[in-house]
Amino acid sequence: MVSYYVQGLVLLLATLFSLVSAKVQYHHFVVQAVPVKRLCKTVNAITVNGQFPGPTLEVFEGDTLVINVVNRAKYNVTIHWHGIRQMRTGWADGPEFVTQCPIRPGGSYTYRFTINGQEGTLWWHAHSSWLRATVYGALVIRPREGIPYPFNKPSRETPIILGEWWNRDPVQVIRQAARTGAAPNVSDAYTINGQPGDLYNCSQQDTTVVPIDVGETHLLRVINAALNQELFFSVANHPFTVIGADASYLKPFTTNVLMLGPGQTTDVLISGNQAPGRYYIAAKPYQSAQGVAFDNTTTTAILEYESLVCPPRGVPKPTPIFPPLPVFNNTATVTAFTNKLRSPRRVPELPVLLEVEENLFFTVGLGLNQCPPNFSQNQCQGPNGTRFTASMNNVSFVLPSNWSLLQAHKFGIPGVFSVDFPAQPPVQFDYTGNVSRALWQPQSGTRLYKLKYGSRVQIVIQGTSIVTGENHPMHLHGYDFYILAQGFGNFDSNKDTNKFNLVDPPMRNTVGVPVNGWVVIRFVADNPGVWLMHCHLDVHITWGLAMAFLVEDGVGELETLQAPPIDLPIC
Ligand SMILES: *[C@@H]1O[C@H](CO)[C@@H](O)[C@H](O)[C@H]1NC(C)=O
Ligand SMILES: *[C@@H]1O[C@H](CO)[C@@H](O)[C@H](O)[C@H]1NC(C)=O
Ligand SMILES: *[C@@H]1O[C@H](CO)[C@@H](O)[C@H](O)[C@H]1NC(C)=O
Ligand SMILES: *[C@@H]1O[C@H](CO)[C@@H](O)[C@H](O)[C@H]1NC(C)=O
Ligand SMILES: *[C@@H]1O[C@H](CO)[C@@H](O)[C@H](O)[C@H]1NC(C)=O
Ligand SMILES: *[C@@H]1O[C@H](CO)[C@@H](O)[C@H](O)[C@H]1NC(C)=O
Ligand SMILES: *[C@@H]1O[C@H](CO)[C@@H](O)[C@H](O)[C@H]1NC(C)=O
Ligand SMILES: *[C@@H]1O[C@H](CO)[C@@H](O)[C@H](O)[C@H]1NC(C)=O
Ligand SMILES: *[C@@H]1O[C@H](CO)[C@@H](O)[C@H](O)[C@H]1NC(C)=O
Ligand SMILES: [Cu+2]
To answer: Which of 18, 120, 161, 165 has the fewest CB atoms within 10 Å, i.e. the most exposed one?
Structure first.
C-alpha cells in the first residue's frame, strides 16, 4: 500500500518535473537580403535577421519551439528544421510544396514543434530553391535540466558550420542551370562559420578564430551546410573523439579526420593539450564523381590558445600549423570513417530487428535527358547536347506547384500526386557496371510510396554508375534510421544480409551511399505525414533525386497527424 503511494508520488513528481523543465521558446526570424562582403566582392545575400550564418537556436530536449518566420526577401521561402522528428507536426517540417506552400514575399508562417528524444546537434535551413546557400544556422539540443551528457562535460562548446559561397545570387546560379540543362556553376569558396579563411583573397582579416585553452575539453558541433559538396574536416594536432552524429549519440572513437555530407552533423571532443599556439581547422572537398567540375578549394579557421603570448605590436602572430587532409577522391578514408560509427546501445529498439514488412530497394543516381524537340541547342548544354537529370527507381521527382503534398493528402485533393512509387527498380540491371544508354533517361513524376502506420521498413539504397557513380548523402525527413550495412558494387541479398549489424547500428538522418555502392537502412513508420527522402546535394535534388513517403495515420489521436495550423500558407 505504502509502496504504491510512494510510486505514485514519484511518478507525479517526475511528470510535474518534466512539465516544469520543458519550456516554450519563441523566436522571430526575418528573412531578408543584406550586403555581405566575401572574396573582395559584396553580394546581397538572403539571411535570417541580417546574420550570416543565421542565429543559433539553443534548446533543451523536451522544449517546444515557436518560430515566426517573416519573408522580407524577393523570393518564396520555407525553413526546414533538419533532423527534427516532427512527431505528428509534419506541417512544421518545411520543404516547399511537400509539407507546405512557400511563404511568399511579404508573407509569414509560424513553425511550432516539440523536440523529443533527440540530443546533440542539428541545424535549420531554407528548403526552397537554392536559398539554403545563405539561409542556415545551428540548432543545439542539450539534455534536459538535471540530465548529464553521456561524456565528461566539456568546458566549452562551439558550433562549426561548413558552408559554400557563391559570388552570385545562388538562385540565379540554379536558374541558369535549369535553362541550359548543364551542371550549375561551382561555388567560389567554402566557409567556416561564414568565413572562407586565410587561403582565399581578401579573407585573412575575417578568418574565424575558435578559442581554446590548455587543459580544456572542447566540444565542436560540426555541421556540413554546404550546398553541393561533401567535405573532409580536420584540426591540426587535435585528434577528435567522436561522440555523436545527427543528434544521436555514438560509441566514442578517435579519428584525425571526419567526412560529412551536406545535411550531416558530427559532435567531437578535442583536448587543449598542445603547446599554446595556433592550429588550422580546415575543410576541403571529398569528390567521388569522376570527370565533373567541383570547387577544389580549402576553407580554414584558426584554433587559438587563449594563453598564447602575443608577439609585440607589428610582429605577425605565428603561422598556424596545417592539418594533413586526404586527397579529394580518397574514398578509402571515407569508408574507414563511416565503418567506425556505432550506436552506444548494445541492441537497438526491438521493432527494427523484427522481420521487415516493407522490403524496399531504391536505386539513386544521375541521368541524361535527350534534348526535347521543342528545345534549342542552348537549352541542351549537358554532355553531348543533353540535359542533366537524376532519379530514384527511375522516377525523376517533380514538385507540385498548386498544393503541397501534405495538404493534398490531408484534404483529399486529387491529381496532385500518385501513390505508385515503385518498391523495386522497374528494370533490373548491373547498377554499378557499364549501363546501357537505353537506361539513362528516367521518367518524371510526383509519385509517393504509401506506408501503413507502424510498419517496419527496410530500404536498400543502391547507387548507380549512370553518367558517373557518386556518393549521395541521402536524407529522410521526419525520421532517424538505423544503418545496418554498406558496401561497394551491387547489393547481393544472398551474401550481404550477413553483414547486417543488428547489435549496435548507428542512427542518423542522412547517410552517404558509397560511390558505386549501397547502404541498408531501417526505421519504423511511426510518424504520420508526407516525408521527403532526397539527396542532400542540392544540385541533385533539383534534378529530381528525391521521392516521398506517405505515412498513414494510425489509431487514435496520438497516431494521427495534427490539424494544420491556421496560418499555413496556401499556394
Ligand atoms: C557561370 O559561370 C560562367 C563562366 O564563368 C559565367 O559566364 C556565368 O555568368 C556564371 N553564371 C552565374 C549565374 O553565375
Ligand atoms: C586571388 O586573386 C588573384 C589575382 O586577382 C587570382 O589570380 C587568384 O586566383 C585569386 N585566388 C583565389 C583563391 O581566389
Ligand atoms: C585540387 O587542388 C590541389 C591543390 O591546389 C591540386 O594539387 C589538385 O591537383 C587539385 N585537384 C583537382 C582534381 O583539381
Ligand atoms: C584520384 O585522382 C587521381 C587524379 O587526380 C588519380 O590519379 C587517382 O588514381 C585517383 N584515386 C582514386 C582512389 O580514385
Ligand atoms: C559524348 O560523346 C563522345 C563522343 O561520341 C563520347 O566519347 C562520350 O562518352 C559522350 N559522353 C557522354 C556523357 O555521353
Ligand atoms: C494541380 O496541378 C496538377 C499538375 O499541374 C494538375 O494536374 C492538377 O489538376 C492541379 N490540381 C488542382 C486541384 O488544381
Ligand atoms: C559499355 O557498353 C557499350 C555497349 O553497350 C560498349 O560499346 C562500350 O565499349 C562499353 N564500355 C566499357 C568501358 O566496357
Ligand atoms: C526509365 O524509364 C524510361 C522510360 O520508360 C526507360 O526508357 C528507361 O529505360 C528506364 N530506365 C531504367 C533504369 O529503368
Ligand atoms: C511562389 O509560390 C507560389 C505559390 O505559393 C507559386 O505559385 C509560385 O510559382 C512560386 N514562385 C516561384 C518562383 O517558385
Ligand atoms: Cu546526390
So the answer is: 18
pLDDT for 16 beyond 90: no
pLDDT at residue 258 is higher than 90: yes
Cα→Cα distances 232→163, 190, 212, 300, 482, Å: 13, 12, 22, 12, 23
d(CA 35, CA 37): 7
Indicate if the pLDDT at residue 6 is higher than 80. no
Rounded distance between C-alpha atoms, residue 114 and residue 137, angstroms: 18
Residue 19: what pLDDT?
52
Report residue 129 CA to chain centroid gap. 16
- What cell numbers appear for 119 in the block? 540530443
pLDDT, greater one: 111 or 22: 111
Ligand 1 binding site (Cβ under 6 Å of any ligand atom): 168, 172-173, 176, 185
**What's the rounded mean pLDDT across residues 148-156?**
94
CA of 184 to the centre of ligand 10 (A): 14
Q: How large a percentage of the chain has pLDDT more than 70?
A: 95
Does 8 have pLDDT greater than 60?
A: no
Q: What pLDDT, on a 0 to 100 scale, did the predictor assign at position 558?
A: 95
Please identify, by atom number, the ligand 1 atom nearest to the C-alpha of residue 184: 1
- In angstroms, the Cα distances linking 196 to 187, 282, 519, 525 are 12, 10, 33, 41
CA 286 to each of CA 69, 258, 437, 441, 539: distance values in angstroms, whole numbers, following the listed order: 34, 10, 28, 27, 16
**Ligand 10 centroid – CA 388 distance (Å):** 13
What confidence category does residue 312 fall into, taking pLDDT thresholds of 50, 70 and 90? confident
pTM of full prediction above 0.85: yes
The atom of ligand 2 lying closest to the CA of 200 is: 13
Q: Quick one: which ligand is closest to 538's CA?
A: 10
Ligand 8 centroid to Cα of residue 182, in Å, is 21
Cell output for 75 = 523570393
Closest ligand by atom to 512 CA: 10
Q: How remote is the CA of residue 296 from the centroid of ligand 3, in Å?
A: 6
Q: Which of the ligands is closest to the CA of residue 542?
A: 10
Residue nearest to atom 4 of ligand 7 (CA): 436
Structural domains of the chain sorted by starting position, each given as residue range(s) with its CATH number in brackets? 1-150 (2.60.40.420), 151-340 (2.60.40.420), 351-559 (2.60.40.420)
Q: In whole angstroms, what is the distance from residue 422 CA to residue 537 CA?
A: 23
User: Using an 8 Å Cβ cutoff, are 145 and 60 in contact?
Assistant: yes
pLDDT in the model for residue 21: 62
| 338 touches 259 (CB < 8 A) | yes
Please tell me the predicted confidence (pLDDT) of residue 348: 67
Ligand 2 neighbours (beta carbon < 6 A): 200-201
Question: Rounded CA gap, 553 and 88, in Å?
Answer: 9
